[in-house]
Design goal:
Layout lengths: L3 H20 L2 H11 L2 E6 L3 H11 L4 E7 L3 H11 L3 E2 L2 H8 L3 E4 L6 H8 L5 E4 L7 H14 L3 E3 L7 H11 L6 E9 L4 H6 L18 H11 L2 E9 L10 E8 L4 E7 L8 E8 L2 E6 L5 E7 L4 H10 L9 H15 L8 H20 L3 E2 L14
Parallel strand pairs: 1-2, 1-4, 2-3, 4-5, 5-6, 7-10
Antiparallel strand pairs: 7-11, 8-9, 8-14, 9-10, 11-12, 12-13
Helix pairs in contact: 3-12, 6-7, 7-13, 10-13
The structure holds nicotinamide-adenine-dinucleotide.
Nicotinamide-adenine-dinucleotide binds next to helix 3.
């Protein structure tokens, strides 16, 4: 008889656990991830950036792309032919047949919010391309729903993984700059009318926004990540060369909560070619500039107080992003996979991804009101993400 009691306990425990999981079925996704230690990603959207995801995930041993979907049958078919990955025109069918752990949202920016909310019922984790979504109200709904369902969401900010940026952040965290004085980001890129006309969603308020929302969202994220919370911003934008609704040029001055000032300078009207994508941080005891095209090359590393270990190998080992296609996207995915398998906090979760969208809205609000905007705030006059 005695042996039956542990058996009964076992049955009751597992029946309860099973029923609990049925009601909170989202937990199942994490448990499967944990056991598998191999993450299956599925792509929602088979456009330009999908190619990068294939390259980036393709070089990882503990991950694969199990499926893809696109509402455009031609895009789905081309993708399947190119990569031999099953592609669908219906997301539900893709999820049912390929059972992914993560859905990568690679649709036009103005669709990210609706796409995520529609797919939420399948209880999969999300990776979403930048920017997270175009309105803060959508982002807040997504964060609440993910939290309720214990779904993880990650926003792609691959430049945070660039080696010179990683070292710059380390120097900031160590306090090597002393009092922070000024931080500047610059985007001086060329995007001509051909680029904007190629995809009808580009440059529209409803589906993209301008240079601040699209190209500079990486640099705006960087500024906040490195310098901390923004207290206020004042901005101006213009549409100089591109035939689009939103801005092709924008500038802003910022004040950070730590007292430092900041400058954002962004344009897609650089001619005749791309010039730079850079970030510089100046403090009482040091200056670092990371430039190149996508904050990928260390240009200045100067500190009054030396740190033998850090300074010795900075130029040799950390001054450049390796010249390998989609290298920093791969680093981003490694972080996502670690977070899922070991249930750790990822570097760019949903709350992190929200910050740059909030600042972008504050900049547009300042443009509309011609006033300094103090954060946090509720957007009233922004056209970004508004479908007419
Ligand atoms: N991280 C980066 O550096 C980076 C670089 C480029 C683009 N992006 C971002 O990636 C996103 C996509 O950009 P892109 O250049 O690949 O756009 P794209 O227009 O080339 O591709 C988008 C694809 O999504 C498909 N689509 C639209 N609605 C869909 C739906 N409901 N379900 C499935 N598919 C759908 C379209 O048919 C299209 O094929 C944008 O948000 C952009 O900002 C990020």
């Amino acid at each position: 008889m005695a042996y039956k009691i542990p058996l009964l306990k076992f049955v009751i425990t597992y029946t309860n656990l099973f029923l609990y999981r049925l009601t909170k079925n989202v937990i199942i996704a994490h448990i499967i991830v944990d056991k598998a230690k191999h993450i299956r990603f599925a792509l929602v959207g088979c456009g330009a950036i999908a190619n990068k995801h294939v390259t980036a995930i393709g070089r990882l041993d503990n991950a694969s792309i199990c499926g893809a979907c696109d509402i455009d049958p031609k895009a789905a078919q081309t993708f399947q032919q190119k990569y031999g990955i099953p592609a669908y025109t219906d997301a539900q069918k893709m999820i049912e047949e390929t059972d992914p752990h993560v859905l990568n949202i690679l649709t036009p920016s103005g669709l990210h919010g609706d796409n995520i909310m529609e797919l939420m019922k399948f209880n999969r984790n999300f990776v979403v391309e930048k920017p997270f979504a175009l309105t803060l109200s959508q982002i807040d709904k997504i964060l609440e729903e993910c939290d309720k369902r214990r779904i993880k969401i990650f926003v792609i900010k691959q430049n945070r993984f660039n080696p010179p940026i990683v070292k710059l952040k380390e120097a900031l965290d160590k306090g090597r700059f002393g009092k922070l004085v000024l931080a500047t980001v610059r985007v001086r890129w060329r995007r001509d009318d051909k680029y904007y006309k190629e995809k009808p969603w580009r440059g529209t308020w409803a589906y993209d926004g301008g240079v601040l929302t699209n190209q500079a969202s990486h640099h705006i994220d960087m500024l906040i990540w490195l310098m901390g919370q923004v207290e206020s911003v004042m901005a101006k934008t213009a549409t100089h060369l591109a035939d689009i609704e939103a801005d092709d040029t924008g500038v802003a001055i910022l004040k950070f909560k730590n007292g430092a000032l900041g400058v954002i300078e962004a344009t897609t009207a650089a001619r005749p070619k791309d010039l730079e994508g850079s970030v510089s941080v100046l403090g009482q005891k040091g200056t670092v500039v990371v430039g190149g095209f996508f904050m990928n090359e260390l240009q200045t590393w100067e500190f009054e107080d030396k740190d033998e270990q850090m300074d010795a190998d900075i130029w040799k080992n950390y001054s450049k992003v390796p010249a390998v296609a989609a290298w920093n996207h791969t680093e981003f995915f490694k972080d996502v996979i670690e977070s899922l398998i070991y249930d750790k906090q990822g570097l760019v979760g949903g709350i992190e991804g929200r910050k740059s969208v909030e600042l972008i809205h504050a900049m547009y609000e300042s443009v509309e009101t011609q006033k300094e905007v103090f954060l946090s705030f509720i957007p009233k006059r922004c056209r970004l993400g508004v479908i007419k």
